[in-house]
Write a structure and sequence with these properties.
The chain is α/β, with parallel strands linked by helices and 382 residues long. It has helices at residues 3-6, 13-32, 39-48, 74-77, 80-93, 109-120, 135-144, 206-219, 232-244, 259-262, 299-308, 319-325, 328-335, 338-348; strands at 37-38, 99-103, 127-131, 150-153, 160-167, 176-181, 184-193, 196-203, 227-230, 245-257, 273-276, 279-281, 292-294, 297-298, 312-318, 357-364. The protein has one domain: Rossmann fold (3-Layer(aba) Sandwich). Helices cover 37% and strands 24% of the residues. A hairpin with a 2-residue loop joins strand 11 and strand 12 (279-281).
């Protein structure tokens, strides 16, 4: 047995049965496809298969402690995150209609705290729309957000003017995996082996090979044995934002790097990571449906995709710089509690989320410099 797995809590019989049902669905699709599917398809099924995927299954996904959540996001750490973010949102709302659109709102905590913070600043908000694919999470959000301004959408509106927030959304979009072996680029997918799921490679198709060649043209040749991810889905999402963001700003907040850091030769097997009941591990094929699966974001690719969609890059920096620029220290002075100080440390410390998480702002029709990027802007690194 894998030693890392041995230290993790065992799933309940109900959870195990649930994972077995999803695994059977995945095995059937692999068999029908000739014993191989791309990892992006596996990730899509593992996270979003109706009624079975991690985000569609109805299990508690967020939070911590006795609640049994798998991971904690910045809004769950402290309301300070939303209160600081409100400073940037308030500035943009001076120039666009007072509308906010959030993708993947999780428990609804960010929406709840952001609306409260804007109300405290006397910033009127006309509407707060949430695009949420998970029926389970929608219900959790509804129970928290007893606010007439909040509504739920199945897809983004065709012409939106306002502020868009995507906090830890891009990193859970399906990714394709590649590896260089004996000078050849292979795509890593999932096959059946001895009745179970196993990684398997096949020669990369033209689109994947071209994308890897583009990376190598920028960062240099990658060594033999090197593997990583490519976020084609996230790129497509960012390009599409240009179709429905008519005026305003999109704030993408996520774990990631600019391309030269992401595809550094020393980062030998990429950034793919799983979370199971607050334990991190690197085996996405284990207990499908019970694990969150993430991959860091190539923010250079996101900036390029936004440009291709007709949007401007308005700023790029670390979460620490962004929150400090938005007045986090002043907010902390108002709190003056050990709990608030500890939460602020987690949000801005280089050893915690402060450096690992980045903030990218793209938009259209906004001329004023954004406050969140006043110091420490890193757009030049993209």
């Amino acid at each position: 047995m894998n030693r890392a797995r041995a230290s993790m809590p065992s799933p309940s019989p109900e959870a195990m049965a649930h994972s077995d049902r999803l695994a059977a669905l995945i095995r059937a699709e692999i068999a029908a496809a000739g014993n191989w599917i791309g990892f992006n398809r596996f990730m899509e099924l593992a996270l979003y298969a109706p009624g079975l995927g991690y985000y569609a299954a109805g299990a508690r996904k967020f939070g911590g402690g006795a609640a049994g959540g798998d991971f904690v996001t910045a809004p769950e750490i402290s309301p300070l995150f939303a209160r600081a973010l409100a400073g940037q949102v308030a500035q943009v709302l001076e120039h666009v209609p007072a509308r906010i659109l959030e993708f993947g709102a999780g428990t609804g905590r960010l929406a709840h705290d952001l609306l409260a913070a804007l109300d405290a600043r006397r910033v009127p908000v006309e509407s707060y729309s949430i695009v949420e694919l998970s029926a389970d999470l929608r219900e959790r959000q509804r129970s928290l957000l007893a606010d007439a301004r909040v509504r739920w959408l199945d897809a983004p509106p065709p012409a939106f003017a306002g502020v868009i927030v995507a906090n830890e959304v891009l990193d859970v979009m399906p990714v394709r995996l590649f590896v260089r072996e004996r000078g050849v680029i292979l795509e890593r997918g999932v096959a059946l082996r001895d009745g179970g799921l196993a990684f398997a490679g096949r020669p990369a198709d033209a689109s994947l090979a071209e994308a890897v060649a583009e990376i190598e043209a920028e960062v240099g040749g990658l060594p033999d044995g090197y593997g990583a991810e490519l976020g084609f889905t996230a790129r497509g999402w960012m390009r599409s934002a240009g179709r429905w963001l008519s005026r305003g700003v999109l704030l993408a907040i996520d774990y990631g790097f600019p391309r030269r850091e992401y595809y550094h030769p020393q980062r030998i097997m990429g950034t793919l990571m799983c979370h199971y009941r607050q334990h991190a591990h690197a085996d996405p094929l284990w207990l499908p449906g019970l694990n969150d699966i993430t991959a860091h974001v190539d923010f250079t690719a996101m900036a390029q995709a936004a440009h291709e969609g007709g949007l401007q890059v308005l700023g790029y920096t670390s979460q620490a710089h962004f929150l400090l620029n938005c007045g986090l220290l002043d907010l902390l002075k108002q709190e003056r509690t050990p709990a608030a100080a500890n939460a602020a440390h987690r949000l801005i410390s280089e050893a915690e989320m402060g450096e690992l998480v980045k903030v990218l702002a793209v938009g259209r029709g906004i001329d004023a410099p954004l406050a969140g990027f006043a110091r420490g802007d890193r757009t030049h690194t993209l």
